[in-house]
Amino acid sequence: MGIACSTSGLNRTSPPDELTTRESLRKDRSQTMASRTIYGKASYYADKFHGRKTASGEIFDMNGFTAAHRTLPFGTTCRVTNISNQKSVIVKINDRGPFVDGRIIDLSKGAAKSIGAVQSGIVDVKIEILSVPEN
Fold first, then answer.
1. Beta carbons within 10 angstroms of residue 118's beta carbon
2. What local confidence, expressed as pLDDT, does residue 9 receive?
3. What stretches of the chain show up as alpha helix (H) in DSSP?
4. Cα separation of 67 and 93, whole Å?
5. Where does residue 56 rank: exposed (0-12), middle (13-18), buried (19+ CB within 10 A)?
6. Adjacent-strand bridge partners of 105
7. CA-to-CA separations, 112 to 45, 65, 106, 108, 129, in angstroms, rounded
8. Among 40, 39, 47, 105, which Cα is nearest to 71's?
9. Gap between the Cα atoms of 41 and 98, Å rounded
10. CA 61, CA 134: separation in Å to the nearest integer?
11. What is the separation of C-alpha 78 from the centre of its chain, rounded to a whole number of angstroms?
């Protein structure tokens, strides 16, 4: 004779589909992050790192339109605007940094040049997060 289990009248529901829940959380995170705007100081990096691997594994191209940020996920796309002249550039986060207090983003030289940041080296910027990768 087998043993049978009963719910004793309790109504059981199956657990939510794990994949659907994860996808929903990712979309929520993407939408939340994509609406963020950050203000702070930007610097740039170039020659010393040109051709080396970034933290994401990509090869750093100082003439490209990429950036380093301490916490944004790799592949995040941002619009960086130089507050003093309103010039902006769209960059992809592919590295970690800057590791200097008071700075929030390190731009590739190409990105810095396009917003007029090479001459001064450090500029006040507005960073608008445009998209965050799904995973």
1. 16
2. 42
3. 18-34, 109-114
4. 5
5. middle
6. 42
7. 9, 8, 9, 6, 17
8. 105
9. 10
10. 25
11. 7
Q: Return the pLDDT at 33.
A: 57
The residues, any chain, with a CB within 8 Å of residue 94's CB and separated by 6 or more, are: 54, 55, 56, 58, 60, 66, 67, 68, 74, 75
CA angle 112, 115, 116 (to 5 degrees): 80
Alpha helices in 3-124 (DSSP H): 18-34, 109-114
Using DSSP bridges, classify how beta strands 37-45 and 103-108 pair: parallel, antiparallel or unpaired.
parallel
Q: Where are the domains of the chain?
A: 37-131
pLDDT at 13: 42
The string of pLDDT tens digits covering residues 68-94 is 999 999 999 999 999 999 999 999 999
Block residue for tokens 């590295």: 95
pLDDT for 16: 47
The confidence score (pLDDT) of residue 99 equals 92
User: CATH says 37-131 is which class?
Assistant: mainly beta
Q: Which sign does the torsion angle of CA 107, 49, 92, 25 carry? A: negative
